[in-house]
Amino acid sequence: MLRFHNTLTNEIEEFQPLNDKEVRMYTCGPTVWNFAHIGNFRTFIFDDILRRYLKFKGYNLLHVMNITDVDDRIINESAKRNITIDALTTPFINAFWEDLDSLNCERPEIAPRATEHIGEMIKIIQTLLDNGHAYQSEGSTYYRISSFPEYGKLSKIKFEGNITGGSERVDTDKYKKENARDFALWKLVHENDPTGWDANFGRGRPGWHIECSAMAMKYLGETIDIHTGGIDLQFPHHENEIAQCEGATGKLFVKYWLHGEFLKINNEKMSKSLGNEFTLREILGKGFNPLAIRYLLLSVPFDKQLNFTFENLSGAEITIKRLHDFYQRLRETYLCDGINFDFQEKTKIFLRDFEEAMDNNLNTSVALAVLHKFICEVNTAISQEALYTKDRTIILEAIDKFNSVFGIFVETKNEILSTEIETLIEERKIARRNRNFARSDEIRALLYEVGIILEDTKHGVKWKWK
Ligand code: AMP
Ligand code: ZN
Known about the structure:
By secondary structure, this protein is α/β, with parallel strands linked by helices. Helix content is 46%, strand content 15%.
């Protein structure tokens, strides 16, 4: 039974999507004013594990991840460089997909850009103005928090009584607002400002939060199953998304909120503003394997903090190499025909324990411990010549299932070919047994052409690259 920690209820809950076998999930995507850092990628790898595991559990997944291609930082940066927003963001969007690919993360089904959904944002703002959840002041439009008594239900911050007070930072347009905590839905821009859009309620540009409400509801409907993001987005971003959506529709916006904990460095949050970040590109430039970065970032459950060090990364690099060697050894070692029933049982237990760990709020560290224990058992059996061809098939299938979620074993040229090669070698064996030497020679020649030499050994036929 799949269970998640739901930030909304602050409880571990059984996962039950709105429609039986369908999951509609929204993720706050990158702000594309720069290359993403590995802290960002910790959250995106968590999303990847979640999406792969939902599919493993048999759900049909529709996953939307937005691209934030307009915000103050983007506007300032493009003005500083004297280029359009599009010219600034396009290379970073492309880089983001490349980075995600190199970390072996699947891409979401839909990746909408904020600048292409301004019309949808305007519509929601108009509804909020019409039903009293929003008001205008000096040309900008604000959300009236006092009109939404449930405000704070996600972050559990109590606002009653001191809605204007508190020690938190109060933004610069506080004097234009009815209440210091009200947030901007639409910010006034001047006539000749290039980054502006026309709306009934004036020319402006969207506030920080409205884009996610607009894109989530456009592609996934008014109530969605899962919403994810880093923990820093819980307040105010996600609290404001709820206020906007539920204020506009009167319906529950999200059933399960899942938040990824921070990647830290020297026990501080990794962030561009603190200047302590490493982009993925910087780390790859130092010669690290992207799968080692993936392994390290997923090795701690998503709801626990992780402190990044280069020693940990070097450790992950060694582990990835070991996994790779194991995979290769398992596929290529000569095994006698037959079956060791013990291994059928061990493989079942491996898959059962893996699923149990992941069902428990995606406990990736327990799942990896289960994998390492199983690998140890398989290695011992290989060394003791207690593993047979049928065991290999079952074990490989089980590892492939594990890997469909973790994505840490990647096939190399050797491995891609070896199943096909084995089939041909098997066919050649049969041909020889039937004294069909013509076919046997044909297969040898065929393999030679693709660069493979067959060797007859006392254990049977082996192959190697030319
Ligand atoms: P941004 O590009 O700033 O909008 O952030 C993209 C995602 O990365 C968001 O879900 C953030 O919450 C997340 N994020 C930012 N910094 C970290 C960090 N140090 N550790 C984990 N996730 C982070
Ligand atoms: Zn968002």
